[in-house]
Amino acid sequence: MTSFQSGIIAEASSDALFITLNIKRSDISKAKQALASVPSIVKETQEQFPDGQLHASVGLSSQVWSEFDQKQPKELAPFPHIKGQEIDVVPTDVDLVLHIRSSRHDASYELGNKIFSAFGVQR
To answer: Is the model's pLDDT at 46 over the cut of 90?
Structure first.
C-alpha cells in the first residue's frame, strides 16, 4: 500500500499554518532524523486532538533534495515565478515547507511546535 501525507488529500480546513525552514548543510543528518520523525509526530498529535481534523504535509525544495542522498524526481524543479494580471507569486529561497491544517488553531499550533522541536528550532 502506498503511504501518503494526510494533508494532501484531506478536505479544506478552517485553520492553517505555512512554515518555511532553511536547513544548515552541516545539519543534514539531523534534518533527516527530524523528517523521519514527522509522520509519528503528526499521528501522535492527531490522537491528542481527535476532533481536530489535523493534517500536515512537508515539501522539500529542489535545492536541498540532493543533500538527502536520494534520487531526485525528474519533475522536481525550482518553484517558478508566476505572474498574471491579478497575481504575482515570487518564489522564496527555502529548503522546507510545512503545511499544517486543522479545524482547531490550538491543534495546528501544537503540531507546529512539536515539529519545530524535532528540527531543533529555537522559539
So the answer is: yes
